[in-house]
Design goal:
This protein is an alpha/beta fold. The strands form 8 sheets. A 6-stranded parallel sheet has the order 3-4-2-1-5-6. It has a 5-stranded mixed sheet with strand order 9-12-13-18-17. Strand 1, helix 1 (52-62) and strand 2 form a beta-alpha-beta unit. The longest helix is centred in the N-terminal third of the chain and has 27 residues, at 131-157. The radius of gyration is 31 Å and the shape is globular. The N terminus is likely disordered.
């Protein structure tokens, strides 16, 4: 078939240099967070702009210890039993100036060790009399380090160097780096080669040329030609006004979860800093920082043979290029305890520039960022200085696509545990260049040849290690959008087949099919659960309508009628469009796993999957068309009545094409020749392309076990079926052979009934008889038992189950199947290359945290914790709120609710509010108790099955969590064996006596009993392992860990049975809880956990937002809408205005009378309810805190 030559292609856009973008606008995150805490980490950071992630990763690794001999070392020392892992980070950026800056700053931090080596030697020696001298030397070393770190901050983050000493430090370091980088061998043997490496000589040469510029400029004086050149570049690069519309969302993400309270201060600080530097640049009276200005000098045109500079004289500096935005700015206002990590004292110890506090008494963003930079840098020094060589950083000056290609082949071949692309995907291409891709591609300079997201997915599939924890962290950069909602207001796919619903259903089908054929699994997508909070994003999105009208509103101050009309128009627009939050502000961290990950036990290799070649080709082509072709302009042509594709093949697109279809063709058992033929028909046929594609498909080796081997050893074999018309996945057929003779005889017996039951989204059990034999079929993608069919061959000895694949996790039936799949934990080998390696539990959908490094919230003044209420409430989606409200209106108790997930969120919501003291009374003691009358047998007195003892509420401000809180708690399951130990053991020791005394003591304390259903209790047990694993400071026993020996996580869901393994019991910091008998009696049986709320994933459905508050924000603006604290019903959470609107709509007697919609509890006169039903429903919680008011006795 011949491809026609006429196309509708548009002219190529003019080549424009991308802006110099050296600093990111999103908060630092822990790069190792997807991995278990004692597994060595190989990490690839693509497009990394700055070193914030590296510094914070080091802090998260060693934070809580006594960093560098000083600092906030209030946490538990790292257990000697836990393996101290090694971290290897490869970081790339195609801009040599960005890489040169990053190596420079890390080498300066490493220089703390080199400069202090003599002091370290003195510290190790000496007699008793020298102790005072050594203490003085330590203090002097601390002061010198902090002074040097302040200068390093100026070199890395300020656009103008403040003093000669800082310029001299830059000059000396640049000269030192130039001297050490003449050859790769010189660098490896130099002072920094033990920690910092380069991928190749090309990268080293590229950054060395930049360091030479730094050295020359820093040694020059004001008025010289070199300095004037840099001054002009900086002045011209900052000439453009800030693009506030593009940046307004990003400027708030670093302050999460206090964005609403701090957004204006941070935005003002960033804008004022930019405009101030603009004015300084124009005066040319201050020394320009070469680390910024050199990056603005025009780069040679790569297409010019002469190497002459491009027509644009200088590059533009990306706005805002402000270093504070990479730090956790919520700490400027969050109340912290005195012993909290990262607490910055307000007495000026951390800064000598008088910038610690603003006029409102809050810490300044600059002061907090500098303090964190100091603490994180010292942790980096500590980790790099370890004798075990725990940290290795590799740098590459290269685009992401060629780098990935080089890493796939020797000599640079390497595989990774984590691939992070958040800085790459948040980069913006030049405004006038249309790429149709979210990535600025090295091949896309003016021509539509972007590898795009699909290229990255395919590269990740090949670069990630074959293990359950392997993760690709992605993000899009489109920001928050308001889109038309459907009839239900949340995009529910059951809504009358509306056009929007059909479009969204198509997107879900494409995403599901694409992930399946690539062998990648987005766990957040299937679990509809994330620890990332999005409430701040919701509030900012609602306020955008008001912000857009801000200038017009200023001119309507005197015209009240016009202002009211404008407000009404905004409210109408909001109601018509609906609010759609689409996982964009706080960085979508989708987890994509390599194939074979299973759930509820040991991780297995991928099963054999057969597929018809034509069906597979159609499905693969649809995915390629959806992710690549549809994003390229002017590629469609019509030839002889048939629509074909003419692609302007460039290196990037062709490589993506061949890699994608090569991976898909090798992923399944199929006719590869037929697969190749169908694909070649799609692109019109070309002898060269045909030969290349044939070569690719022939060279790809299937990752599946041959079907004959699988049949022999009894492993199931699967066959995938696709819809040829739409290219979407339809069904998966599981073929199960009965190999054992007794199993064959049981199957051959026609009197034995055969039934199916669904035990997990991935597993359908084949049950023979009344459970005589159970054969689990673990499918390669989530499936439904409902609608499935069976083929039973009793004589031939096999059973086949044809199960519909779940395409849309939001549809009603799949949602019920996935309801209890939230934060799964699986077993994976510590060493993927060894079949006998120790099995380690791995949480799949919660980031690991070092609890001892996270800031601790002070709950002494609840007026400063106003942000916690919305943060807790926002874990409900609009769909869940409707279900919750419908149950309330029907008067259904929680024991009759259909969703265990919704019940669990109710319990967590109560726990957060009571632990923080936001409701009447404050308590950190909670117990999960079966609902009376639910048929449960009590395993302890008072029906308490699991105790949760809260030690602290901590802030997790990293981008991985999107700004949220973590409950630092001890969990104590009251198992049968634990409670009956004393009864069955005549030689009961004192510890057992103390435990009984401790449980009796709890009855006298304010322990909150959380009533739970059987299903909710089982759900709690299923997620507790992930909460324990994500924060552990101990190692699992290779020989006695119950997880490994039983192959089950959790150990059991039955009441009274153990839930967690015993490896983690008793591992707590000193003074963890101030309870009598805690350390001697309870702690030895308890496990530390990090509890996070399961927020709905914006990938799957709309996140929660209060429609009444949305209207208030659109009408009055965010600040005015939030200024008055609205009274709310303690049970249902409805506010006064919402209740008034409801009663007006119903025409009730109290319509419009705000004072009557909420009534106080008659006993305590503190909490309020909207109805007797709400009061009755909340009594199980309120009774533990309700104290008769003194007003009754006056």
């Amino acid at each position: 078939m011949t491809t026609p030559t006429t196309t509708t292609a548009k002219p190529k856009s003019k080549l424009i240099q991308p802006p110099f973008d050296p600093l990111a606008t999103t908060p630092a995150t822990n790069l190792t967070s997807p991995l278990p805490p004692d597994v060595d980490a190989d990490i690839l950071v693509i497009g990394g702009k700055d070193v914030r992630h590296i510094l914070y990763t080091a802090y998260a690794e060693v934070g809580g210890e006594d960093i560098h001999g000083y600092g906030h070392g209030h946490g538990q020392q790292e257990s000697d039993a836990r393996k101290r892992r090694k971290i290897d980070v490869t970081m790339s950026n195609e801009d040599r100036h960005v890489v040169a800056r990053n190596v420079l700053v890390l080498s300066l931090v490493l220089g703390l060790e080199l400069d202090g080596s003599e002091a370290e030697e003195n510290r190790d020696g000496g007699d008793g009399e020298g102790d005072v001298v050594m203490e003085d030397e330590t203090g002097a070393k601390e002061a010198a380090d902090k002074e040097k770190l302040a200068r390093i901050w100026d070199i890395y983050y300020t656009r103008f160097l403040p003093d000669p000493e800082t310029r001299n430090l830059l000059a000396l370091q640049a000269e030192k780096l130039c001297q050490a980088s003449k050859t790769m061998e010189d660098w490896e043997q130099g002072p920094y080669g033990g920690t910092i490496h380069f991928v190749d000589q090309k990268s080293l040469d590229a950054v060395r040329s930049v360091w030479e510029q730094y050295a020359e400029a820093a040694r020059s004086a004001l008025g010289t030609e070199k300095v004037e050149e840099l001054q002009s570049a900086l002045a011209e690069g900052m000439r453009l006004s800030p693009d506030e519309q593009r940046q307004k969302w990003a400027l708030g993400s670093s302050a999460a979860p206090l964005t609403v309270l701090l957004k204006d201060k941070i935005r003002t600080y960033v804008q004022v800093a930019w405009e101030f530097d603009q004015n300084i640049a124009n005066t040319k009276m201050v020394f320009p920082n070469p680390t910024f200005a050199a990056g603005l000098l025009s780069e040679p045109d790569s297409e010019s043979k002469s190497g002459s500079e491009s027509p644009n004289r200088h590059r533009r500096l990306a706005y805002p290029s402000n270093g504070v935005l990479g730090y956790h700015l919520a700490l400027t206002k969050a109340p912290l305890t005195e012993l909290s990590p990262l607490r910055m004292d307000k007495d000026g110890d951390d800064s000598d520039d008088g910038s610690d506090e603003d006029p409102d008494g809050d810490l300044t963003a600059l002061g907090v960022a500098k303090h964190q930079f100091t603490q994180w840098s010292l942790a980096f020094w500590e980790l790099a200085a370890a004798k075990q060589k725990r940290l290795t950083i590799r740098f590459a000056v290269d685009g992401w696509f060629p780098l990935c290609q080089s890493l796939l082949h020797p000599p640079a071949k390497k595989q990774f545990d984590i691939i992070d692309t958040t800085d790459l995907s948040s980069s913006s291409p030049p405004p006038s260049v249309t790429l149709g891709s979210m990535f600025w591609s090295p091949y896309a300079a003016g021509v539509p040849d972007p590898p795009g997201p699909l290229g990255l997915l395919v590269a990740a599939k090949r670069l990630l290690k074959d293990r359950a924890s392997s993760t690709l962290v992605m993000d899009d950069r489109e920001g928050v959008s308001l889109v038309v909602g459907d009839a239900n207001g949340d995009g529910n796919m059951d809504s009358n087949n509306s056009r929007v619903a059909q479009a969204e259903a198509s997107i879900f089908a494409n995403n599901t099919t694409g992930a399946f054929i690539l062998g990648l699994a987005p766990v957040e997508y299937w679990s509809n659960a994330s620890v990332r909070a999005t409430v701040d994003e919701c509030l900012l999105a609602a306020s955008s309508l008001y912000d857009e009208d801000f200038e017009q509103l200023q001119g309507l101050d005197q015209d009240k009628a016009a202002a009211a009309a404008a407000a009404a128009a905004r409210v109408k627009k909001l109601e018509e469009q609906g609010l759609q939050i689409s996982n964009r502000l706080f960085r979508k961290h989708s987890r994509w796993l390599t194939p074979g990950q299973q759930h509820g036990g040991k991780w297995r290799k991928p099963p054999v999957v057969n597929v018809d070649a034509k069906e597979l080709a159609e499905a693969a082509w649809r995915v390629y068309q959806y992710m690549v072709i549809d994003q390229i302009e002017g590629q469609r042509v019509v030839h002889e009545g048939q629509e074909l594709v003419k692609i302007p093949w460039g290196e990037g697109l062709w490589q993506t094409f061949s890699d994608f279809f090569g991976v898909v063709g090798g992923q399944f058992e199929t006719d590869r020749e037929e697969f190749r033929r169908v694909i070649m028909e799609k692109i019109g046929g070309n002898s060269v392309q045909d030969a290349l594609l044939r070569k690719v498909l022939e060279e790809e080796v299937s990752e599946s076990t041959p079907a004959t081997e699988a049949k022999t050893d009894g492993c199931p074999v699967f066959t995938a079926s696709f819809d040829v018309t739409s290219g979407t996945l339809k069904t998966i057929t599981g073929h199960l052979d009965f190999v054992a003779e007794e199993d064959k005889q049981l199957l051959a017996d026609k009197t034995v009934t055969i039934s199916l039951r669904q035990s997990s989204p991935w597993t359908i059990d084949v049950v023979l008889g009344a459970g005589t034999l159970v054969k689990p079929l673990v499918f390669p993608t989530p499936v439904l038992k409902e609608g499935s069919k069976t083929r039973i061959a009793r004589k031939s000895g096999y059973i086949e189950v044809i199960a519909p694949a779940i395409l849309n996790p939001r549809a009603s039936v799949p949602a019920s199947v996935l309801d209890e799949y939230i934060f799964p934990t699986v077993l994976q080998a510590a060493d993927s290359s060894s079949e006998t390696s120790q099995l380690i539990p791995t949480p799949l959908n919660v980031p690991t945290v070092n609890l001892d490094s996270l800031p601790i919230l002070s709950i002494s003044d609840t007026s400063r914790l106003s942000f916690l209420g919305p943060l807790a409430s926002s874990m409900y989606s609009p769909r869940e709120l409707r279900e919750r409200q419908a149950a309330f209106e029907k008067g259904l108790p929680e024991s009759c609710w259909d969703s265990a997930r919704l019940n669990l969120k109710e319990s967590l919501h109560t726990m957060i509010n009571i632990a923080a003291g936001l409701q009447v009374g404050q308590s950190g003691l909670f117990a999960l108790c079966p609902v009376s009358g639910s048929g449960s047998s009590s395993s302890s007195s008072d029906g308490r099955h699991i105790l949760i003892l809260v030690s602290a509420i901590r802030l997790d401000c990293s981008a991985q969590s999107g700004g949220g809180i973590v409950i630092d708690a001890a969990v104590l399951p009251l198992t049968h064996s634990l409670l009956e130990k004393k009864k069955n053991n005549k030689n009961t020791n004192d510890d057992d006596e103390d435990l009984q005394s401790f449980l009796v003591l709890l009855r006298t304390l304010d322990c909150v009993d959380l009533s739970v259903t059987d299903a909710e209790l089982a759900l709690w047990k299923s997620i507790l392992p992930s909460f324990a694993e994500r924060c552990r400071t101990w190692s699992h026993s290779p020989s006695s860990c119950e997880y490994a020996t039983t192959g089950q996580i959790p150990l059991s869901l039955k009441k009274g049975d153990p839930v967690l393994c015993t490896c983690g019991t008793g591992h707590f910091p000193p003074n963890y809880l101030s309870l009598p008998l805690w350390e001697s009696a309870a702690a030895p049986h308890a496990t530390r956990v990090a509890i996070s709320a399961p927020y709905c994933s914006p990938v799957v459905e709309k996140v929660v937002f209060d429609p009444v508050l949305a209207r208030k924000i659109a009408e009055r603006g965010l600040d005015e809408a939030l200024r008055k604290k609205e009274e709310r019903c303690r049970s249902c959470g409805k506010g006064e205005e919402e209740l008034v609107e409801e009663r007006k709509a119903k025409g009730g007697e109290t319509a419009g009378k705000t004072a009557e919609v909420l009534r106080k509890c008659a006993r305590c006169l503190k909490v309020k309810y909207c109805s007797a039903e709400c009061q009755r429903r909340d009594w199980k919680t309120h009774r533990t805190e309700c104290v008769e008011s003194e007003e009754h006795h006056r």
